[in-house]
């Protein structure tokens, strides 16, 4: 029992009855021990330490960033050595939008997209009713001029007969000289009239030919054999060789492409044009068929450069055409050296954005599970947006093509959704 409680008992024994009643109303409170206060203090300190540790750990916890990756695929290269890689498009040397020489209303279109046509085949017809009437008028005028010539020939023949008769009588002194002069004048007049009418016939014949040509121009024919790629007009529309009336007037019936004239056009950086020459072997790969290597060769280097792009255009011809090759397809070409390589080499094609510079060396960031790994690589060539890597990467690895501005070794990352 505590000393304070003993003192209270002693005091109670000496109290009067009234004081005892008042003392009985007092509420006794337990005394606080020093050990309980120390426990509360320790608990507060522990909670503070845990909170500080949590804040420190949250600030220093490895951050996770989103990245986009590409899976590495190796390409085995052997045979001829590749000097240069470039990209371009399949183009047609013979391609025409077939139009009309005259303005008129389309009454019939006889082609559809994808149809093969022969040279001279009828593609469409234009309303020719007015031209036909003009042709008939010209033919009638020609017939009238021909009839007038026949009449003049008859008059000339009669005038010549009269002149011969008058000349015979005048030699015998039977007729006057005035009659002889009159008959001579008739011959000259009919001769001149006949010559003029013959000229009019020639004019009428030319006019008939003009209207026949205009009638023929209302029939639109294929200028060469090929395939129809677009159909640009429908029956009832107005077509004209020149744009008139805004969008209500067509300027072409269809577009024809000669599939036998397909080739590749490549823009080569002028810094590498010294690696290209005429008749150089080329291997072309269509983006639509990446596993199909198409043999080709350089047929021309256009002798001018594009000042804006700093490139030179190169024409490449296919060794053999194939129905799978279509105009405007994108294609990658590899210019070969013509010399056989002694060993097979593996290369990797990556987007240019995946390659970074670090202290003068080319590096890429490789995603290993959920962390980044810095990898030094050897870049062979860089053309447009593609780079060829010959060392430093293996097939199946994931290379980061787009990520945060600052990346570091061991950084935690996740792959962004496509």
Please summarize what this structure is.
This protein is of the alpha+beta class and 418 residues long.
Q: Which features does this protein show?
A:
Elongation Factor Tu (Ef-tu), domain 3; conserved putative lor/sdh protein from methanococcus maripaludis s2 fold; 418 residues; five-stranded mixed β-sheet; alpha+beta
Look at the helices and sheets and give the structural class.
alpha+beta
Number of helices: 5
Tell the overall outline: elongated
CATH class group of the largest domain? Mainly Beta
Mean of all residue-level pLDDT scores: 80
Secondary structure: helix percent: 25-40%
What does this structure look like?
- With about 425 residues, the protein is α+β, with helices and mostly antiparallel strands.
- The strands form six sheets. A six-stranded antiparallel beta barrel has the order 3-13-16-15-14-17.
- Mean pLDDT is about 80; it is low at about 55-60.
- The longest helix is centred in the middle third of the chain and has 43 residues, at about 130-170.
- The protein contains five helices and 25 strands.
- Helix 4 packs antiparallel against helix 5.
- The protein has four domains: about 60-80 and about 345-418, conserved putative lor/sdh protein from methanococcus maripaludis s2 fold; about 80-95 and about 260-340, Efflux pump adaptor protein, beta barrel domain (Elongation Factor Tu (Ef-tu), domain 3), CATH 2.40.30.170; about 105-120 and about 220-255, no CATH class; about 130-215, Four Helix Bundle (Hemerythrin (Met), subunit A), CATH 1.20.120.
